[in-house]
Amino acid sequence: MPHALRLVVPFVVLVLTGCAGLGVGREPPSVFLQSFRAVPDPAGAAGLPAFEIELRVINPNPEPLRLHGAVYSVRLDGRKLIEGVANDLPAIDGYGEGRITLSAAVDVLGGVRLLADLMNQPRDRFEYSLDARLDPVGFSRDIRISETGQIDLQPR
Questions:
Q1: Cβ contact 55:145 at 8 Å
Q2: In tens digits, what is the pLDDT along the chain, a chain of 156 residues?
Q3: Using an 8 Å Cβ cutoff, are 110 and 79 in contact?
């Protein structure tokens, strides 16, 4: 057993050292919420609002930033109403910036509660919080964004 251990330990150290060296000297991309707005729901889901979430991504590295996908959720007035995923995301050129647009519809049960709230207390503005995770190709860490603000539910 000690002989096998002598062979395995250097191999494990070599693999871990190689993985740790990937991405050295690379800066993490910056992600900003560009817009979050209500849009007409193309599926006509009982008049529930649909949303368009636009993220601005800055890639400070020479290689293009390719993304496997994104996972995101939105809360309105503290209630989670939207969860979604996206996998058809554009690559961001090296030393470049680009925009990623995520489309989301309100969960039907959450939407019914939202409509009931609107019937009891009509209003056009809500507090929102957005949490998103972008999954880059390769060994890079996930890119996370958390934003809060107000949204106007009247489409423009």
A1: yes
A2: 554 445 444 444 444 444 443 455 688 899 888 988 888 766 555 566 778 889 999 999 999 999 999 999 988 888 888 889 999 999 999 999 999 999 887 787 877 777 788 789 888 788 889 999 999 987 568 889 898 998 776 766
A3: yes
Report which of 140, 153, 125, 132 is spatially closest to residue 33, judged by C-alpha positions: 132
Please list the residues that pair with 55 across neighbouring strands. 33, 100
- The token duo for 46 is 């009982």
For each of the domains in the chain, give its residue range(s) and CATH number, in order of start.
27-152 (2.60.40.10)
Find out whether 50 and 114 touch, Cβ atoms under 8 Å: no
What are the backbone angles phi and psi of residue 82, rounded to the nearest 5°?
-135, 130
Q: What whole-number distance in Å separates Cα of residue 124 and Cα of residue 70?
A: 28
Identify whether the C-beta of residue 68 lies closer than 8 Å to the C-beta of residue 103: no
pTM summary value: 0.69
What kind and span of H or E run contains 7? helix 2-21
Residue 117: C-alpha distances to residues 79, 90, 121, 124, 127 (Å) = 12, 37, 6, 11, 14
